[in-house]
Amino acid sequence: MVTVDRTRLRAELQTFPPYIPGRAPQEVPGLTPYRLSSNENHLDPLPAVLESLAQPGELPSRYPDDAAVALRARIGEVFGVPPERTIVTAGASELLVALTQITSDNRTEAVYPWPSFEMYPQVTGLAGAVRHEVPLLPDGQHDLDAMAAAVTDRTGIVFLCSPNNPTGPVLRHDEVARFLDAVPSHVLVVLDEAYWEFVTDPDAAHGMDLVDEYPNLVLARTFSKAHGLAGLRVGYAIAQEDVIEGLLKAVIPFGVTQPSQRAAAVSLDHHDEVLERARAIAGVRDEVADALRDQGWAVPQAQGNFVWLPLGELSDAYEEAASQQALAVRNLDAGVRISIGPDEALERVLELSRAFLEEHPDQADHPRSSGRH
Ligand SMILES: *Cc1c(COP(=O)(O)O)cnc(C)c1O
């Protein structure tokens, strides 16, 4: 008898869960379904961006510009850095993979907050690194002292996420500077700023002001959230040239299509409008967060385009209740993350949340979050 062995895959694959994307909403008769599970921008892309996508442009038989010269030049102009200090990737997701690739293997360690972006365990786990998941403080903030203490002489990469996905708070500028002072300068520190455009807290860490001072710091950013181009897959980094040179060896050749590069550059041509729209979404976010707090929910400081309900064991029940209202939310076990969407969707969220609290009054017993600003 022939024995059939399973295909030999790396043992590291057993050490972390797969990335689970946000669900689609359930169809409920009479209700418009809304997907509030992926932190997408609910506004349409800017008209100029849609126009650029409608143009015929380059032939599909041609490879895109591998060096993304025009887009990197535009990023450099907008943020005041030479293009050599930027790189463009297939979403910030590819960047997180590449940053891990250039720093990490099974002899190194990785440090990141938890709960935070689900790709951190995935990318560092696949590299075989020993993972130090440092629990957030009760108010959803990073425990930077514990994170600094988790850094050893084997640490290859540290992730900071501001605003933190999924809980929402930002890191403060002074505390990040102090953290960077405490961490050895050869340890690569990634500041994931996927939601920086939505930040309104004046004390928040401002990556651009830190990246010149700390050569081991990398800013990870994306066109997926504030720019509303998640489907086009464009992310970028700002870092020192030696890190960028390393990244250029680790990214997929021709990973960002020409229409995507062009649309991202056009969106940056209208950067003021992008920021204005992000501020409008931030205003709605503040209203929703305050309304939920007034109902009795312990919503942490919310600085992205989403709010966090720390539901713990009731996360499944809330997700199900939302699903019955044709709303898809993101259930992350420790709680539920809800993206800022159209008004009708958010009104439904508030109604649902009020009814849920009435059925589960002990949820309101949580201490009020300190993040009311
Ligand atoms: C959405 C997100 C990203 C990257 O998304 P891409 O679509 O791959 O650019 C990175 N970090 C965080 C924290 C995110 O929420």
Q: What would you note in describing this structure?
A:
The strands form three sheets. A seven-stranded mixed sheet has the order 2-8-7-6-5-3-4, with helices on both faces. The protein has helices at 47-54, 69-79, 91-101, 119-127, 144-150, 173-182, 207-210, 241-250, 258-269, 271-295, 315-323, 343-359, and strands spanning 34-35, 86-89, 109-114, 130-135, 155-161, 188-192, 217-222, 235-238, 306-309, 327-328, 330-331, 336-339. The protein has twelve helices and twelve strands. It is of the alpha/beta class and 373 residues long. Helices cover 36% and strands 14% of the residues. Helix 3 (91-101) packs parallel to helix 4. The protein is globular, with a radius of gyration of 21 Å. The model is unreliable at 367-373 (pLDDT under 50). The structure holds pyridoxal-5'-phosphate. Residues 39, 91-93, 117, 161, 165, 192, 194, 222, 224-225, 230, 235 line the site of pyridoxal-5'-phosphate.
Shape: globular
Q: Look at the structure and give the mean pLDDT.
A: 95
For the secondary structure, the number of strands is 12
The strands making up the biggest β-sheet line up spatially as 2-8-7-6-5-3-4
Helix percent band: 25-40%
Task: Tell me the number of helical segments per DSSP (H or I, 4 or more residues long).
Answer: 12
Largest sheet: 7 strands, mixed
Structural class: alpha/beta
- Ligand set: pyridoxal-5'-phosphate
